[in-house]
Structure formats: C-alpha cells, structure tokens
Design brief:
globular; 1 helix; eight-stranded antiparallel sheet; Jelly Rolls; seven-stranded antiparallel sheet; 377 residues; mainly beta
C-alpha cells in the first residue's frame, strides 16, 4: 500500500501532466553541455493548471501563472512583492571584491568608461575567442542570509558585436544556490541552482531572457524521464512508479507545475542532469531601439520557494523577469523544493559567466548596480 505522501505525489503528476519534448545539441539524450538550455519548448507551454490538485492540497494562492502568461513567458503585470530586506549591494566601485564579502578567487575588471546611469563604474566581462570565462575573472560567490525568496536587480549591457555562445545555450551569467549545498559547490551539480541569463539567437538577431532551475543531486535515478518522454527503469512503468519526495523537482523525475522547457541527460557516474527553464524571446535586439543590446537595461529577477503541505511539495513557487519595467517572464506554479527538504532556502549568489564551448568571437558584457534582497526593496 502506498503512503499518503506517495499517493498525493502521483495525484499531482496526473493532474498537472507530464509531457513535452525539448530538442538539444550534444551531449547524448539531448542535453546541452553543462546545459541550460536549447530552443525547444514543451508544446502549448506545458502543464500550467496549478489549481487542479488532489483534495487537501492546493497552491498557496489561486492566481493564474502570471497575468497573460504566454508561450514566450508572458507579459503579465509587474507583481514582484515589495518591502524586501536588502541582503547586499554591489556597486562595482573597485575590484576589491573580497572586502565586500565575495569569495572563491574573486577578481575582475572595473570599467570607468562604461557604467549605468548615475553610476561611476561597472564590472566588465571580456570573452576572448575560445575562452570559457571572463579574461580578468569574476566577483564569483557571495553568501546571503538564507531566505525563502530572493530578488535580484542589475543593469546589463552587451557589446555591439555580442553573439553569445553561438549555440542555443549559454552563457551562464548569474546564479543562486541553496543552503543544502557546500559553499564551493559546482553550479551544475547541486540540490538547487537558479539561472538568470540572456541566450542569444543569432538567426533572429535577438536575445532571449531566461530563468532556469537545476537540481541534479535530487534525482531518483531509479526512474528517469528522458527529453523524448521515454523512460529508464521505473520498474517498467513510469506512470505507476512509487516516487517519494526524494526526487528531482525539475525534469528527470517528471513535470509538476509550470514548465516552458526541460532537460534531462546522463552525465555519467550515476548522475542525471535535471533542469527546466522559462524564457521570453526578443528581450534584446541587434537593431537599435528600446531593447538594443548595446544600451543599458535594468533587469529584476525574483524566485520564491513553494509551500509544503502534508509533507509534500506543492507547485506554488514564483519566478519573475522584469526588464525596464516590463514583465517578460511570470509564472506562479513552480516547484523548487519537496518534502524531503521542506526548509530549503536560497543561501548564495554568484556571478559566474561561462560559455562551455568557448566564445566564438571576442565580445564583452557589463554589469552594474547589483542588488540582492528578499523581495523588491
């Protein structure tokens, strides 16, 4: 006989659906190297009806997944909560990052010629041809007081020749990591990592705003759902496999709540990379105008943990991307933690630009006036 927690979990999976295919480049099984993500999307945006839950298990709020949320992340109203407590600020006045709490080899270029309005200098990341990281290093990691929600704001600008990775994934840019992981954990192999980045589409001449989650260390390797909806193990039947709360919230163990795209692939050594993402096309453009990539843009991102009811994780977490006052990504039914770690919190921020295949050209981006808080201050 299944436990009540298992019964509720299976009910959630049936109610919210488990569907969709995302195509990727290498490695095998469709995963992007260290990979969030490719261009694919779950058909019709994936499971979004977070209200269709078993009796006794309901989202913390009954709102839709972001007002007017659409296939590219929606254009809902700007509803990031206010009144947040500032956890730290970085003005990039100099590169003595360690004195301001940054660690793990913190370094980087400070640029006084390029900076956001009202600022005097910015952080500059130069990618040389073939380089995977910034030439002069990065600020790296900064601890934050553990919190159920995190707000991130910053100004960003890209060089006029910016093409990103030249692939439908990367560069990684900004992360949050949870308190379940070591302070030096690798970002692509954790119990929860968030991604805030711009993925460039050279064919379209636009940049895609992207928010993503990865929780590889949570995966129940005994039952894997691949990107093409085939499965591995599962006692021969994915639909009846007795999942517990010791499982991935992202992709490899099924899809609960809002999902735009997903990734699940074997990384070797008994690990499966598990991620899902939400994106908005055309956030930045090559053409001059309101979203021109070579102008400064003010970005706000927000992640809020989901609730736990009856020992089961409920997909009622929230994510937002607001750019220059316009909401580009807005979802209200996101699963980030399960009953296995009911008090999981965000505990680390990182600036860690990375292009896994190496930069195709010499190119630059800048960051300025970064704030991390529990909600919009």
């Amino acid at each position: 006989m299944r436990s009540p927690a298992v019964a509720v979990l299976l009910g959630l999976m049936v109610a919210l659906g488990c569907k969709g295919t995302v195509q990727r480049a290498t490695p095998p099984d469709g995963g992007a190297p260290d990979g969030i993500p490719g261009d694919g999307a779950v058909p019709d945006g994936g499971a979004r009806d977070g209200t269709a839950l078993p009796d006794g298990v309901t989202p913390a709020d009954d709102g839709a997944p972001g007002a007017d949320a659409g296939a590219d992340g929606g254009s809902g109203t700007d509803d990031i909560p206010g009144g947040g407590t500032i956890l730290f600020e970085e003005h990039f006045d100099d590169n003595d990052f360690a004195s301001r709490g940054w660690y793990d080899g913190s370094s980087g270029t400070i640029d006084t010629a390029e900076h956001a309005p009202g600022s005097a200098s910015s952080y500059r990341c130069d990618f040389a041809v073939g380089a995977t990281g910034c030439t002069a290093g990065t600020p790296a990691r900064h601890p934050v007081t553990p919190s159920d929600s995190v707000y991130l704001s910053f100004y960003v600008k890209f060089s006029s020749n910016w093409v990103g990775s030249g692939q439908p994934y990367h560069p990684h840019m900004l992360h949050f990591v949870s308190d379940a992981d070591d302070q030096y954990v690798g970002f692509a192999n954790t119990h929860l990592t968030t991604y805030t980045e711009v993925v460039w589409d050279g064919a379209a001449g636009t940049g895609k705003a992207l928010l993503a989650l990865q929780d590889t260390l949570n995966v129940d390797v005994n039952c894997i759902l691949r990107n093409d909806d085939s499965f591995v193990g599962c006692n021969g039947n994915f639909g009846t496999y007795p999942f517990t709360e010791s499982r991935s919230v992202c992709a490899c163990n099924g899809l609960l709540g809002d999902v735009d795209g997903r990734d699940c692939f074997d990384t070797g050594g008994g690990l499966w990379y598990s991620a899902r993402y939400w994106s908005s096309a055309g956030a930045l453009t090559e053409a001059t105008g309101a979203r021109y990539k070579n102008d400064w843009h003010f970005v706000e991102a927000y992640f809020q943990m989901n609730s736990i009811q009856g020992g089961v994780g409920v997909p009622d977490g929230k994510i937002r991307w607001v750019q220059d006052g316009q909401t580009l990504i807005s979802y209200d039914h996101v699963l980030m933690r399960t009953g296995a770690r009911p008090t999981l919190k965000f505990a680390q921020h990182a600036i860690a630009p990375y292009i896994g295949d190496g930069s195709p050209v010499a190119q630059t981006f800048w960051l300025d006036e970064l704030t991390v808080a529990t909600a919009r201050p």
